[in-house]
Amino acid sequence: IRQGNAILDDCAQAQNSSTQKLLYTAVLQVRAMLDALGLDPYADPWASNANKSSATGANGESSKECAALDALIALQLQARADARKAKDFSTADAIRDALNNAGIVIEDGAKGSSWHLQ
Questions:
Q1: pLDDT tens, residue by residue, 20-31
Q2: In 25-49, which positions are buried (b, 16+ CB within 10 angstroms) versus exposed (e)?
Q3: pLDDT 10s digits, 37-55
Q4: Contacts 24+ apart (CB under 8 A), 46-55
Q5: How many domains does the chain have?
Q6: Range of the domain at 36
Q7: Residues near 22 by Cβ (< 8 Å), separated by ≥ 6?
Q8: Which residues pair with 114 in a beta bridge?
Q9: Hey, CA dihedral for 99, 100, 106, 108, is it positive or negative?
C-alpha cells in the first residue's frame, strides 16, 4: 500500500505511461490483497451491490461484508476530511484517488462526503 501511495504521488506529478503502468500494477496488487480478505470491490458480493452506497445488501438486507466495507471507507473519508481541514490537499487527493482506483467513487456535499461503487 505504501508503494501504491508513492506511485499515486508520482502519478499526480508526472502523467506518463510508465508511471501509469506502475499505478495499474499497484492497483492490481491491492485488489489481490483485498480479494484474499474477501474485500475486493469488483468481486461478489460487492459487485452485485454496485449501486448501493450504504451497508445494505442487494435485496436491502444488511450484510457483514457491506458493513465492513462501509466502516473501512468511513475511516478513509474521515482521514480525507482531516487532511482537507489541515489544508493537506495532496493527501486528501491521494486518498480520493486511491479509493477511486479501487472502484469507489467519492462525492462531496454540504453534509460531508458519501461514496458508492463504480
A1: 677 777 778 888
A2: ebbeebbeebeeeebbbeeeebeeb
A3: 888 777 776 666 555 544 4
A4: 46/117, 47/117, 49/117, 50/116, 50/117, 50/118, 51/116, 51/117, 52/116, 52/117, 53/114, 53/115, 53/116
A5: 1
A6: 2-117
A7: 7, 10, 11
A8: 107
A9: positive
